[in-house]
């Protein structure tokens, strides 16, 4: 079975580096992704892993709604997502979804069974077409040409794959994943991280200075993440990874620092951030491939 790739392009998405992350985590019994976005790392998890318990979370209710809707009514989401590229639709749907966000957030948070397939389908459709940040953000009202130069997200490899079939495979992969919507620390309470023997925690907060890109302004969250991770460095049951840019954090020497290059987002060409990406792994993580040959 081929693992489906993330359904939407996402600034800061970690799918390209996911195999390295799994080399350092190994087949953990509980995997937690508190800043889920496009689920880049979860979707890159090797098939051979047991995938027993997986928990993801994002503060953005449009993201939580998409994953929840896809789990429960994939055909419903596909029905709205599978529509032609049309600039007028893009603009109209942008405004319409932006006007629904407050009510959606209330419903998503107060009712664990709530999801909206129309918002989920149109949101993932536009996420593949909208250039830059601000998709479905009420603050942005400028006219926007759809992305027509490359096929991204659900439109990737469109000629060789059927969107409905692709979304069905994605839905099956995430069927048992626990999806939360709120602040990252809620899925890392002592009750959660105290119960399993072997937990992998992938912390990918908005990088310093990029918080506004995600619509949910979380200024200072990366520093909180760093402090949270340092305090739990020596917990024997935790394997922790933190993402950032070179120089963002000063981790102790026993943390493993891995440099990597992202393929570039819409801001990376300005600040060359793609040349400075880093992932720091806590001392409990070890490169499984290297240990096989040691
Ligand atoms: C760098 S992106 C994560 C990308 C993800 N690893 C991927 O592969 O697509 C950061 C995410 O954190 C979310 N976020 C921002 N502040 C948050 C907070 N306080 N708690 C939880 N999620 C938050 C944003 O909505 C965004 O989706």
Written account of the structure:
The protein is an alpha/beta fold. The protein has two domains: 166 residues, Rossmann fold (3-Layer(aba) Sandwich), CATH 3.40.50.150; 116 residues. About 2% of the residues have low confidence. Bound molecules: S-adenosylmethionine. S-adenosylmethionine binds next to helix 2.
According to CATH, the homologous superfamily of the largest domain is Vaccinia Virus protein VP39
The CATH architecture classification of the largest domain is 3-Layer(aba) Sandwich
Rg over C-alpha atoms, rounded to the nearest angstrom: 19 Å
The SSE string, one letter per element, is HEHEHHHHHEHEHEEHEH
State the total count of DSSP E strands: 7
Spatial sequence of strands, sheet with the most strands: 3-2-1-4-5-7-6
SSE class: alpha/beta
What tags apply to this protein structure?
12% strand; Rossmann fold; 2 domains; alpha/beta; 7 strands
